[in-house]
Amino acid sequence: MQFKLALITFLLAGILFAQTNVVTTESGNLTIEWEKKLEDHIASKEKEICISDPPQPVEIPEFCRGARVQVFYSKSRSEAESKLKELKGLFPTEFSNMEFNSPDYKVKLWHFESREAAQSTLNKARRTFPSALIVEETVRCSLID
Q1: Do 105 and 75 form a contact (C-beta atoms < 8 A)?
Q2: Cα dihedral angle (57, 63, 69, 75), rounded to 10 degrees?
Q3: Domains plus CATH for the chain?
Q4: Mean of the pLDDT values across residues 23-36?
Q5: Quick one: what percent of the chain has pLDDT higher than 70?
Q6: What value does the mean pLDDT take over residues 2-27?
Q7: Which of 24, 65, 80, 122 lies 20 to 30 Å from 116 when distance is taken between CA atoms?
């Protein structure tokens, strides 16, 4: 009788504690079965390896060192305005403007990240404005070509 009681206890304990936590994953006609411990282990490794937060955007400074093509320089406002009109006719898609630094008016074209980047535009501008030159200055980073 004791043997039967011990056997029943042993079988009952075996049934209760022998159950494994099996996870079943199905994808189409493929079925994968694995233990819950393995799934937990994979999830913990994914947390260690994978970055859950999106990367922070790189902060771009507002002002950068750059270059512009200066096509005209004068003390006469009317002369500078006529040259600006002429420049806008030659380069209609590119930004151009007139700057006033007392007592001088300067007509400038576009924003470039370096002198080398401005060189081809300078060559085109010199066909009409032989005194054009590249000037290095601080420009808005968002305007750089």
Answers
A1: yes
A2: 150
A3: 21-51 (no CATH), 63-143 (3.30.70.1070)
A4: 77
A5: 87
A6: 69
A7: 80
Structure tokens that stand for 137 in this block: 């200055």
3-state secondary structure of 52: coil
d(CA 63, CA 139): 6
Instruction: Enter the tokens of residue 142.
Output: 């968002």
Token pair listed for 56 = 């922070």
pLDDT digits (tens, 9 = 90+) for 73-100: 999 999 999 999 999 999 999 999 999 9
Q: Do the beta carbons of residue 108 and residue 101 sit within 8 Å?
A: no
Asked if 73 and 100 count as a contact pair (C-beta separation under 8 A), the reply is: no
For 93, which DSSP code? T
Distance CA 112, CA 95 (A): 11
